[in-house]
Amino acid sequence: MDVMAALASMVLQHATAFTGHAVAPSKGGRMARQGSMDIHGHDSNMFHERTIDVTLFRIGCSGWSYRHWIGDLYPSGTRPEEMLGIYSRSFDTVEIDSTFYRLPAERTVDEWRRRTPSGFLFSAKMSRLATHMRRLQDPARHVGPFMERLQRLDDKLGPVLVQMPPSQGIDLPLLSSFLDSFPPGQRVAVEPRNDEWFVGRTYKMLEERSCALCLVDSDKGAVTGPATADFTYVRWHGRSGHAYSYADEEIVEWIDILQDLGVEEAYCYWNNDLEGAAPRNARRMMESSR
After folding, report:
1. How wide is the angle at C-alpha 125 spanned by C-alphas 167 and 36, nearest 5°?
2. pLDDT in tens, the chain (290 residues)
3. Of the candidates 192, 148, 158, which has an alpha carbon nearest to the alpha carbon of residue 60?
4. How many domains, the chain?
5. Which end of the chain is more exposed for a tag (fewer CB within 10 A), N or C?
6. Domain range spanning residue 92?
7. Which CATH number do you get for residue 88?
8. Could you count the other beta carbons within 10 Å of the beta carbon of residue 181?
């Protein structure tokens, strides 16, 4: 059975805190472009057919503290401490990239929560100390303090992104142990950057833990599935660097792909932040999915 065909009739609704609207079912499935990773030869029979009728569709950017967004998303004269509040008037979610580099102070996390409205969600990128330096070893030492700090966001904490370096080849017991160290109920997305991971046994392990395979679009190609949880997590890095601005038809292609997944929630983050492309593309995605 072709998973994408089986799911093609499902309906996606963009339902953020700001707008809610239905989208017609997709007639396509996968993004076709040269160099695309697409779905790396998974065994479609291992995945449960998803029959969700309505998907909560959240769209935002990877980070918000960018001075080069002044004049686009931010008015002239905007101070750094004002950016998150202004950002949260346009989008209902953001991916925190700074947590990859350092653990934020308690007062910083408290300020993030205070400056955003009810219903706003933060996703957080797992510390590079755990993923790139310790390479997923000794997870209790890293995941516990990380989650204790981010849980200060309370009901504004969304998924945690675990990104692995390109040099990290497949090791399912290692990744399984790392994922099992998260608190029960915490949503986790996994972004492998080595092709060895894109096989059926990886998807099966993720599905058993209700962890999402991170979908991506970059200069190296696109990962467009499969869905391994009741939510999906997507990152757009830019097809020729972080200044790349996606054309309307490229954004619509991704809307079609996400329609086919049949998940309960889709967390969509634009990481092409240079020259203000990310907020423009995020806004365009919201408009195009109406």
Report:
1. 55
2. 343 333 333 323 322 222 222 233 332 223 433 333 444 434 434 455 555 555 688 999 999 999 999 999 999 999 999 999 999 999 999 999 999 999 999 999 999 999 999 999 999 999 999 999 999 999 999 999 999 999 999 999 999 999 999 999 999 999 999 999 999 999 999 999 999 999 999 999 999 999 999 999 999 999 999 999 999 999 999 999 888 999 999 999 999 899 889 899 999 999 998 889 999 999 999 998 77
3. 158
4. 1
5. N
6. 3-288
7. 3.20.20.410
8. 17
